[in-house]
Design a protein that fits this description.
The chain has 287 residues and is α/β, with parallel strands linked by helices. Helices cover 41% and strands 19% of the residues. The model has no long low-confidence stretch (mean pLDDT 94).
């Protein structure tokens, strides 16, 4: 099932096609017959979590290409190295024109999903939920946050209008934590969550006194997080951010926090290794 809002995503896909094809594919148009039929097999060159497959059909459609796109797999599933997980049949010229744009999206989103699943698996059995952040590629936030969701994590705020998160610079500009919280509370809808970032136990005490809904523990060591959990004693949910990686995320999760937000899900995700292998369709032979 596709969870994409194509009205929002189509401009991104169109821009990607225009950026790559421009006035035309000089190489393909000069050497490939426009009527030549072919099959493109999508092959995993590593173990990966698939993300972005519904974009394949959409990109061909935006290219006005009549393409039969099929897959036995869905986004969020583990694809093993060497597996052919999808296929596109149609004109060779259309496959070649769309190849790089399609692979760019599949590799990027599957890379995010693969890294995200590793974090999700690392905290399995604890109460901690892995969250993403707004540290996304400009213009690709919808897609990147989708990749995080299909891998089993959850999205933090999509944008600034989704909730209040008072950070260090807000506290400085807002006249201190208590003043910033009072102003925010009076200016937002009652259903919006109010979260405050703290960097030490003094700020934690102030946040609890101010009556915030969520506390973000920023760049604290695991032993400090464990003490913070004891001090809060379940009064409000606790989120951890800063300095978290695959080697220590389990330790943070076992402190008893509710959420762990990780910008690395996007900015440190390596593109998944996926190839599109072309086969010509010979009349009278199946393929």
């Amino acid at each position: 099932m596709c969870a994409f809002d194509f009205l929002a995503i189509d401009p991104v896909l169109r821009n990607a096609l225009l950026e790559d094809i421009g006035a035309g594919d000089l190489t393909t148009e000069s050497i490939v017959s426009p009527d030549l039929a072919a099959t493109g097999d999508f092959v995993a060159k590593q173990n990966l979590i698939l993300a972005g497959w519904p974009l394949v059909s959409r990109i061909f459609r935006l290219l006005s290409a009549d393409m039969d796109v099929t897959s036995s797999r869905s986004d969020g599933e583990l694809i093993l190295v060497g597996e052919t997980f999808g296929r596109a049949k149609g004109k060779a010229v259309d496959l070649l024109k769309a190849e790089r744009v399609i692979l760019n999206f599949l590799q990027h989103l599957s890379g995010i999903a693969t890294l995200t699943r590793a974090f999700v698996d690392a905290v399995a059995g604890t109460r901690a939920t892995i969250l993403d952040t707004r540290k996304t590629t400009p213009g690709l936030r919808l897609l990147e946050k989708y990749a995080v969701r299909v891998a089993g994590a959850r999205n933090h705020r999509f944008g600034l209008s989704d909730g209040v998160l008072i950070k260090e610079n807000h506290i400085t500009a807002g006249g201190g934590m208590m003043q910033a919280v009072r102003r925010a509370r009076s200016g937002i809808d009652h259903i919006k969550k109010l979260e405050v970032e703290v960097t030490n136990f003094e700020e934690l005490s102030l946040a609890l006194e101010a009556g915030v809904d969520v506390v973000l523990l920023d760049n604290l060591r695991p032993q400090q997080v464990r003490e913070a959990v004891q001090r809060v004693a379940g009064k409000v949910p606790l989120e951890v951010s800063g300095g978290v990686n695959l080697q220590n995320v389990r330790e943070y999760a076992e402190c008893g926090v509710d959420f762990i937000s990780i910008g690395a899900l996007r900015h440190s995700a390596k593109a998944a290794d996926i190839s599109l292998e072309l086969r010509l369709q010979i009349p009278g032979l199946s393929g």
